[in-house]
Amino acid sequence: MTSPLEKERTLSVLGHLAMSAAEGLFPGYFALVMATGVVSIACDFLGFPIFANILVGVNWVAYVILWSLTLLRLFVYPKKIIEDLFNHQRAPGFFTLVAGTCVLGTQNAIVVDAHAVAVALWYFGLGLWFVVMYAFFTAVTVRKNKPSLAAGINGAWLIAAVATQSLVVLRGALDTQIAPSVEMQFLSLVMFMIGCMLYLAIIPLIFYRLTFVRLSIHDFSPPYWINMGAVAITTLAGSTLIMRADHWPVLPGFVPFLKGFTLFFWAAATWWIPFLLALMLWRYLVRRDKFIYEPQFWGMVFPLAMYTTGTFQLSRALNLPFLAAIPKYFIFVAIAAWLITFAGLAAHVGRVIWTTVASQGRHSETR
């Protein structure tokens, strides 16, 4: 039987862990939910249903924990939230709340056919989109002291486009056979256009920073994979709309445009992969930087899985079966990346718990 002292110590450790995790929570940690959801969807499409279903459970646990820490941070450390919102480097991470919610909804709709849950997550994601989108761009616009381009922008800014397209993808997953209202169809089409606009507005700044600004090895961080992930999810959103055109009456007139634009974004995503891989090899093999787990690594797993899913759906939307060969093998890259990153997360959490328990033990002995 556990003694009252041991119970008190356990509660003390758990409380300290929760408060510490909430205070320092990275705003972009919902990329864990994004990555896990897309890997699960890709596995379901490509014939790995058991792993796809396991990841549904994993994702719900991650989603609940991250929201609990976010709400705790909001009420206990509101100044930290405000500081992050006005920080050009950290603020884009808030868009992962939107994208994570919508990807989880799509995962539930496709993998376990939980339609009602997915609908609720779509409306929740839409509300989050309005709050985060306009809070972020207002905050970074009115900020008095702004950083230089080199210090202020990275690939994480493109999560704004990812969040927008995630709403389109989830809506398409919900209405596969029966058309939603005309207003909902129009909103989905508009969201697709907004997501394209955001990518095309932001990517020139990022490309300029990469090619004309002197950068350190730490600047070549995992968020730059969102350069590819944003166009990969745009490919998926466009492909989804193309495949819904036969029973969404608003869409047929836009199909030629959607086909051309969607293929354009898939080509862009494909172009990014060798370049980003070269940058990673340069950082970790040539410059021998240490490969240490950080939450931003989920921003690399997500694009790999999204490229797999987007290419699979593009091959169906454009009736190009030869493209299906890419996701058939790329899925293993996405799964491996998820497993390695998840192992890094588990090891990181284990170290934090061990350090906290040891610290609390020493504190108890001195009392």
For CATH, the homologous superfamily is named as Voltage-dependent anion channel
Shape: globular
Give the tally of β-strands. Answer: 0
Q: Supply the helix-strand structural class.
A: mainly alpha
Largest sheet: none
Strand content: under 5%
Q: Uncertain regions: pLDDT < 50 for 5+ in a row?
A: none
CA distance, first residue to last residue: 24 Å
Roughly how many Å is the radius of gyration?
Answer: 21 Å
Tally of DSSP helical segments: 13
CATH topology, which one? Glycosyltransferase
One letter per element, helices H and strands E, the order comes to: HHHHHHHHHHHHH
Estimate percent helicity: over 70%
The count of domains is 1
The averaged pLDDT comes out at 91
